[in-house]
């Protein structure tokens, strides 16, 4: 209840002050019209500067009493338009405040007249008259206050429309915010991948190495039980296989070589691990930013994996060209082709590239060859 009363009081004060700024706006419009007529339009720059100063003054009023104001510079033409709107809205708000004060003064005059015995307009303080006038005054005061609050909402809406960014600027700002948020999500995912890789390498992998060493030592101990020896040998082999698989998983999560040696070193590891020949052609003017490196690596890694698993390729060519502006990655294989751009793997790569405002293209006709291109901005 207190918050509602405080909001009503704050808005009412803001509208009341808006009545004064409305008078200033009205005076400004009259003077501006005279100046334009006398100077044949040459005084327009001065008029716009004056409008900007008056708008800055009124913007503080809106921010203080009607809600958080919009930020940013206002051009002269919009400031003049705002002063035109302020002249009308402020005058109406001032009129409502005048009616409220006149009504309050009338009620006070009636009460004082009844108390001192000098009735105003010979209105006697009969029970019926008191009840009737009290109810009428309450209704009129309620309508008056509602009108003032409505003017406050219109006042705020006008400030948002004329002083805030236009629809185009608002859309551009929203797009920029979404692009930034998307890039931050990608960076957070990559950071989490790095953390998981470190945990696997420093934690689980080391424990498996220790288990394998213990089992190896146990196998070398003399034992009369052939079954026990066989179980130890099997456990040791399983631990070795689990270690190999864990290293593969750790590498797929995030390659440690990417942080240590950069993109060329990571791509060389992809080529070494591939069961088919992978020809690398990498030329970089400078080392790309970590997010760009990471996306480029996963594009190449996923493309090589797809070429081997699904396209039955016998050769894969990887070409990487990096400049200060962009990093271009092209992967071409001699496989069967027919890769669906809407597949889960390629869709994930497309989203990764798009998250950095890059371009992604897949050309895979039936019978091959398949060409995957990704262009990532570096600026």
Automatic annotation (TrEMBL):
<dbReference type="GO" id="GO:0005524">
    <property type="term" value="F:ATP binding"/>
</dbReference>
<dbReference type="InterPro" id="IPR003594">
    <property type="entry name" value="HATPase_dom"/>
</dbReference>
<dbReference type="InterPro" id="IPR011712">
    <property type="entry name" value="Sig_transdc_His_kin_sub3_dim/P"/>
</dbReference>
<dbReference type="InterPro" id="IPR036890">
    <property type="entry name" value="HATPase_C_sf"/>
</dbReference>
<keyword id="KW-0902">Two-component regulatory system</keyword>
<keyword id="KW-0597">Phosphoprotein</keyword>
<keyword id="KW-0808">Transferase</keyword>
<keyword id="KW-0418">Kinase</keyword>
<feature type="domain" description="Histidine kinase/HSP90-like ATPase">
    <location>
        <begin position="297"/>
        <end position="377"/>
    </location>
</feature>
<dbReference type="InterPro" id="IPR050482">
    <property type="entry name" value="Sensor_HK_TwoCompSys"/>
</dbReference>
<feature type="transmembrane region" description="Helical">
    <location>
        <begin position="95"/>
        <end position="118"/>
    </location>
</feature>
<keyword id="KW-0812">Transmembrane</keyword>
<feature type="transmembrane region" description="Helical">
    <location>
        <begin position="20"/>
        <end position="40"/>
    </location>
</feature>
<dbReference type="Pfam" id="PF07730">
    <property type="entry name" value="HisKA_3"/>
</dbReference>
<keyword id="KW-0472">Membrane</keyword>
<feature type="domain" description="Signal transduction histidine kinase subgroup 3 dimerisation and phosphoacceptor">
    <location>
        <begin position="192"/>
        <end position="256"/>
    </location>
</feature>
<dbReference type="GO" id="GO:0016020">
    <property type="term" value="C:membrane"/>
</dbReference>
<dbReference type="GO" id="GO:0000155">
    <property type="term" value="F:phosphorelay sensor kinase activity"/>
</dbReference>
<protein>
    <recommendedName>
        <fullName>histidine kinase</fullName>
        <ecNumber>2.7.13.3</ecNumber>
    </recommendedName>
</protein>
<dbReference type="Pfam" id="PF02518">
    <property type="entry name" value="HATPase_c"/>
</dbReference>
<dbReference type="GO" id="GO:0046983">
    <property type="term" value="F:protein dimerization activity"/>
</dbReference>
<keyword id="KW-1133">Transmembrane helix</keyword>
<keyword id="KW-0547">Nucleotide-binding</keyword>
<feature type="transmembrane region" description="Helical">
    <location>
        <begin position="130"/>
        <end position="151"/>
    </location>
</feature>
<keyword id="KW-0067">ATP-binding</keyword>
């Amino acid at each position: 209840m207190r918050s509602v009363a405080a909001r009503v009081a704050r808005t009412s004060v803001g509208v009341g002050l808006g009545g004064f700024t409305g008078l200033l706006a009205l005076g400004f419009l009259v003077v501006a019209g005279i100046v334009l007529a006398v100077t044949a339009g040459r005084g327009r720059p001065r008029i716009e500067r004056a409008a900007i100063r008056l708008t800055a003054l009124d913007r503080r009023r809106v921010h203080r009493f009607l809600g958080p104001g919009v930020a940013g510079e206002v051009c002269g033409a919009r400031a003049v338009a705002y002063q035109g709107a302020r002249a009308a809205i402020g005058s109406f708000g001032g009129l409502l405040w005048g009616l409220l004060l006149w009504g309050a003064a009338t009620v006070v005059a009636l009460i004082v007249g009844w108390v001192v015995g000098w009735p105003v307009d010979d209105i006697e303080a009969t029970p019926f008259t008191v009840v009737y006038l009290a109810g009428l005054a309450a209704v009129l005061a309620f309508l008056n206050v509602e009108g003032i609050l409505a003017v406050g909402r219109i006042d705020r809406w006008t400030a948002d429309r004329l002083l805030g960014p236009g629809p185009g600027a608002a859309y551009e700002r929203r797009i920029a915010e979404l692009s930034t948020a998307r890039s931050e999500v990608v960076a957070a995912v990559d950071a989490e991948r790095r953390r998981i890789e470190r945990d696997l390498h420093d934690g689980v992998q080391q424990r498996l190495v220790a288990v394998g060493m213990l089992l190896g030592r146990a196998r070398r101990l003399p034992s009369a039980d052939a079954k026990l020896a066989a179980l130890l040998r099997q456990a040791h082999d399983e631990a070795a296989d689990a270690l190999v698989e864990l290293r593969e998983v750790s590498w797929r999560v995030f390659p440690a070589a990417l942080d240590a040696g950069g993109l060329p070193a990571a791509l060389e590891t992809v080529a070494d691990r591939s069961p088919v020949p992978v020809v690398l052609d990498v030329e970089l003017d400078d080392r790309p930013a970590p997010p760009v490196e990471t996306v480029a690596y996963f594009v190449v890694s996923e493309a090589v994996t797809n070429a081997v698993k699904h396209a039955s390729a016998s050769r894969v060519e990887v070409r990487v060209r990096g400049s200060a502006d962009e990093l271009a990655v092209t992967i071409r294989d001699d496989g069967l082709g027919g890769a669906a751009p809407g597949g889960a793997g390629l869709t994930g790569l497309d989203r990764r590239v798009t998250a950095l405002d890059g371009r992604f293209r897949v050309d895979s006709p039936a019978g091959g060859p398949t060409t995957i291109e990704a262009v990532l901005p570096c600026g």
